[in-house]
């Protein structure tokens, strides 16, 4: 027993059905009407801000405020960092100056002590070595006075000492070519 399908299409109906387009664009208006009807029935939450006319302005203002906040944060951070670095560098420079002053003090004390030993040995039989030590002491003293004049060019005492130590002809009868300048470090 064969049952005839009540939904069976005739060949003309099948041809007409196959000629229909498979997809139809419902259009933007249908979507708008559907969303509006769902809002009116309360089936959708809050209205999307993307549809609001001022939404682009609000988004643009939010982006501008974010950029302004970011840039001001960078500027304040740079300012605070610069102040901190400047204070740290001033402290380091102060410590470095103090360390340099202490080194000058130690070197000066060592210089005076070495000259004291040289004075004690002045009566020894090794006159050439004592003379060489005297020359080295004068050369170091001259170099130190020159640096002192560079440090304080308007200090009259430093300038006067340098003028006193300026190289001049040796009055002891020793030729300039016989003098050996030695700088000890």
Descriptive overview:
By secondary structure, the protein is mostly helical. Helices cover 66% and strands 0% of the residues. The mean pLDDT is 78.
What form results from the Cα inertia axes? rod-shaped
Q: From the alpha-carbon coordinates, what is the Rg to the nearest angstrom?
A: 50 Å
State the share of residues found in helices, binned by percent. Answer: 55-70%
How much β-strand is present in the residues? under 5%
Q: What structural class should be given to the helix and strand makeup?
A: mainly alpha
Distance between the termini: 126 Å
How many beta-strand runs? 0
SSE succession = HHHHH
Q: Biggest sheet, open or closed, and with what strands and sense?
A: none
The overall average pLDDT, rounded, is 78
**Tally of DSSP helical segments:** 5
Q: Which runs of at least 5 residues are low in confidence (pLDDT < 50)?
A: none
